[in-house]
Amino acid sequence: MPDILKLMIMLTILFSFIIDGNMIMSMTSGKPCVPRWFNRKHSFVCICNATVCDSFDDDDRISNESKTITIFSSDMHSDRFLRSEHHFKNVDTLNRGQTITINRNKTFQTIIGFGGAFTDATGINIGKLNDQLAKNVIYDYFSPRGLRYSMGRVPIGGTDFSTRPYSYDELGPKIHDDFNLSYFKLAAEDFDYKIPLVKLAQNISHYPIKLFASPWSPPAWIKTNGHLNGLGRIKGKPDGIYYETYATYMIKFLREYEKQGINFWGMTIQNEPVDGTIPAFKFNCNAMSPEEQRDFIFETLGPQLNASGFGIDKLKLMIMDDQRPFIEKWANVILSDKRANKYVSGIGFHWYLNSFTSVEVVSKTHHKFPNYFLLSTEACEGANPFQLEKVSLGNWDRAQSYAYDIIQDLNHYTSGWIDWNMALDPEGGPNWVKNFVDSPIIVSEDGSEYYKQPMYYSLAHFTRFIEPGSVRLDIQTQHEYLNMVAFETPNKATVLVVLNRNKHEVPLKIHDDKYGIFSHEIKGHSIQTLVWY
């Protein structure tokens, strides 16, 4: 073949992989990623606009043939969900690296689900996009061709990720109290941002979405400091009229959403109750000690929920909803009390202070209170004050951080993992106190496109395969070069998620008594999901 002809063929092939000035990266599951680099020291984002947008296959094309493994791989340098097929063998072909044995005779917790939060900021940013792109974002999270989220967190009132501080019962200067909640009404933000997106998610999801509500602050007049933020708590005692009114306030929220056709699976009692103990705390908060929360549950909230038809059989009440280092204290105070624990179903915790305590405290809490589920109810990157770059486009370290935390939580009896904002702007907002953070999806300032961060694909390695009802399997290993977790799904697929945070490849050998031996190289700085039947 003449050299000039060879060159023309090579250029033609190369051109076929160029779209919009960007090389399409390896992604054989669904529509391919069109990448863009914002910082060459990082990885890349995948662009979604009116012309291009990647997606996953509805069914992932997973082989159900015996001894066949389907692998999906994402890494720092090139791949986003690269699909490949391999086979178990009857002989050992690898004598190095990490060896694991899948032990199906020892099982642990059942998965409730994965999801994100319907914040005002999420709705505002999605609202900047045209109708088709806006719908695409929710499809990217909740549809069979997206992350397949099965849970959602809905704030009761405003959060810092609103454009203003607000509650549902703010009074004028001449009105001091509203114990009958005569002035209660949902905010414009509920009708503009939260309710429409929740309904769309419910319509496209493969699963019934388990929604749970979380309050950041009661109305200002209920609090000791008269403000939604800052050092303050509910006036009086847990059996007093202010606490009673607050319980009624939360129930009215549930009722108002019912009128909109939205029902809640669960509710946390207070988002980060420790925040309200901090002087001059910037955004919406409310102090509540473990003892106050315990007394509030058995004196007021629990009985009111029961009387209103939101008993434990209908609404899963979760305690704490704060940082992991506090989990043992809160569980001991509330769940050891028979007057309160009969109203409670689970414990919510956040990841922001994880460096201050080992994940073993989560296991200890499970072993002491095995009848209560554990749920990671909030996490995001960019929240650390030392992270000066709040939104870091294409940051692979943050994808690894997500994967590592999810694996750690799941390996210590956690039944689900909920991300924070689902869409933010390039600054990491809007946020009325400028508490900017990162998100798996970032919407451009002009609303012409959005970017799927590496964090998005990191989540996909778990959320697309570890479906609700999956049961964690025991893994036996002598080395820990890799981080991993294994599950059996309701349809009897085995799912193994593997994280390699090392720069170099790590050989992995899998022993499965049912199928044989599989040897495989896990690329450096990669996340892989292995599925077999």
Automatic annotation (TrEMBL):
Its EC number is 3.2.1.45. GO terms for cellular component: lysosome; vacuolar membrane. It comes from the Eukaryota. It catalyses: an N-acyl-1-beta-D-glucosyl-15-methylhexadecasphing-4-enine + H2O = an N-acyl-15-methylhexadecasphing-4-enine + D-glucose; a beta-D-glucosylceramide + H2O = an N-acyl-sphingoid base + D-glucose; a beta-D-glucosyl-(1<->1')-N-acylsphing-4-enine + H2O = an N-acylsphing-4-enine + D-glucose. Pfam families: Glyco_hydro_30, Glyco_hydro_30C. Residues 1-30 form the signal peptide. InterPro entries: GH (IPR017853), GH30_C (IPR033452), Glyco_hydro_30 (IPR001139), Glyco_hydro_30_TIM-barrel (IPR033453). This is Glucosylceramidase. It comes from Dermatophagoides farinae.
